[in-house]
Amino acid sequence: MDLVQLICCWGKDGDLVSGNSGFQHLTFIGSRPIAKRVVTKASEVLTPVVVELGGKDAVVICDDYLKKKGIEGIASVLLRGTFQSAGQNCIGIERVIVSGDRDNYEKLVSLLQYRVDKLRVGSDIDQSEEIDMGAMIMGDPKFEELEGWIKEATEKGQGRLLAGGKRYNHPNYPQGHYFQPTLIVDLDPTATIATNEVFGPVLSVLYAENDEKAIELANSTPFGLGSSIFSTNFKHANELCKKLKVGNVAINDFATFYVCQLPFGGVKESGYGKFGGEEGLRGLCVEKSVCYDKTSLIQTAIPKVIDYPIANGKKAWKFVSSLNKGGYDHSILEKCKAIWSLAKNSS
């Protein structure tokens, strides 16, 4: 039925698409500057728009989780969430915030360094080599940005670079856009790389004294798309979840809200609106409210006291005010008085 269409066009034609009155709804996934352009043009023809603008997703690892579960399992989750698709994932892990025991934090950092150092970069096209991470869709401009952010953090003492940090020139694929798998730890939450979306293969680790501080750090960026909380105490994890200013949360896993096809979307500068799930589909619909009498025995009628032209204004006012009081007053006594008043002033 062609109800939903993917629209591809050149940038120069974007305004024609966004401002086309023939579209009933638009869902835009991209950057904040372009989103503002899309929404501006769509507003000219009053087309509703859902925007998803990326994020700075945090993984909060509570102290109890590392003490009871250890570091091996969580390390695997962090590596997958950061380096799959070379980090080019809007809900990829952008920040890892470890709470509590500093010794457990250092143990996790050591394991991550060991495993990141072993990651292999290359192309799987000809199946000639075993690889863990491929190329990126963006080249020099993006690499210059990432290298600049990493260099700034290390030179200012805002983080320790333990692996990577630069573009990678593959001997067999010199034309490829490869970036080294990167690990930067002890990251200052005010560093440029800690507050801007990386969208690349950079694993950033921050330390928090306790869980409350960890939530503060998670909420400290302008973004609010997704996040994860790891704790062996579900009640505690759920309480922390309520404090996260994001649109999606996975407890003790990574990005499962997307796999489960729950309504997906962010808050703050990550956008607004939802797509996916039942709620997302309903958002694409034009809902129509219809009211009718389900039986001929009960029919809506205009009470004589407020029928036009109104014969007695004071009596009509008492009827209407009693009707509202009977429907909305919190006091049972006042509701009863209102019903009595309705009966007295209904004719």
What is the secondary structure topology, with strand pairs?
Layout: H1 14-18, E1 26-29, H2 32-44, E2 49-52, E3 58-61, H3 63-69, H4 72-83, E4 95-99, H5 102-116, H6 140-155, E5 160-163, E6 167-168, E7 178-179, E8 182-185, H7 192-195, E9 202-208, H8 211-218, E10 226-230, H9 234-243, E11 248-251, H10 256-259, E12 271-272, H11 277-283, H12 313-328, H13 332-344
Helix pairs in contact: 12-13
Describe the structure.
The protein has helices spanning 14-18, 32-44, 63-69, 72-83, 102-116, 140-155, 192-195, 211-218, 234-243, 256-259, 277-283, 313-328, 332-344; strands spanning 26-29, 49-52, 58-61, 95-99, 160-163, 167-168, 178-179, 182-185, 202-208, 226-230, 248-251, 271-272. By secondary structure, it is α/β, with parallel strands linked by helices. The chain has three domains: 1-52 and 268-289, no CATH class; 58-259, Aldehyde Dehydrogenase, Chain A, domain 2 (3-Layer(aba) Sandwich); 304-344. Strands 5-8-9-4-3-10-11 form a seven-stranded mixed sheet, with helices on both faces. α12 packs antiparallel against α13. The two termini are 55 Å apart.
